[in-house]
Amino acid sequence: xxxxxxxxxxxxxAFAGNPLAVVFGAETLTDAGMQAIAAEFNLSETAFVLxxxxxxxxxxxxxxxxxxxxxxxxxxxxGTAVTLARRGDIGHGAAIQECGVGLLPITVMEDEATLTxxxxxxxxxxxxxxxxxxxxxxxxxxTGPARFAGTGLEFPYLPVTDEAVxxxxxxxxxxxxxxxxxxxxxxxxVSHSRLFAPGHGVAEDPATGSAALGLGVxxxxxxxxxxxxxxxxxxxxGAERGRPSRLHCEVTAKDGAxxxxxxxxRVVPVARGEFVAxx
Length: 279
Description:
It holds the Pfam family PhzC-PhzF. By secondary structure, the protein is α+β, with helices and mostly antiparallel strands. It folds into two domains: 3-113 and 266-274, Diaminopimelate Epimerase, Chain A, domain 1, CATH 3.10.310.10; 120-265, Diaminopimelate Epimerase, Chain A, domain 1 (Roll), CATH 3.10.310. It has five helices and 17 strands. It has an eight-stranded mixed barrel with strand order 1-2-3-4-6-7-8-17. β1 and β2 form a beta hairpin. The model has no long low-confidence stretch (mean pLDDT 97).
């Protein structure tokens, strides 16, 4: 039997945060079958729990948007880990998730999990014209340089005013599959973020753990977070979608570059069921 659960991630209440479908018993599904199921759910991502293939892994997960598979993503990782622990499939405490970028450490508590992202990466400044156009914004909204950054999955980060984050509207472009726009308050270390990802079949994501992780890499590179030691920051996302989310992050830096980034969030169960038809 192939079953599923729906959970809301990066929130402490149902019908907020980012919804996730976690599918169990998917060993017999083909790649095309998993993609068809993800398209049927039509959520930002759907996670498929599978037997491990690498030594040291606690469980394996494959993650699909409505249009394609991702090497990993934050809210599916956090949501899957907490759901597995709640079902008794894994224990609380330290675990290792096997996914498309390899083995990622994750610590599971009763209703929350902390994911450590992959190896941090950060590119040089990029042209902002296409990114601004994809968000319906102008040069006057910018507050710093745009650049790609990530921890196994890179995003283009576009720093703009807080008012511009709220005002932005997605304008899909073939040359901009996704854009993460944000306004960071250095005094409180809180980021007001939005992510448009039309190239993945996601008009706007309510909470993006992998983008929250990459943001820490960007912030260190731009001198907006200390260049040594471990420091926390918070990402607030999803309010414009009516699904407020809160992502608690930590970035460890050395000599002006991020060396490790973690994201923590709570998970709320919403629904469960089983498939009566399969692709």
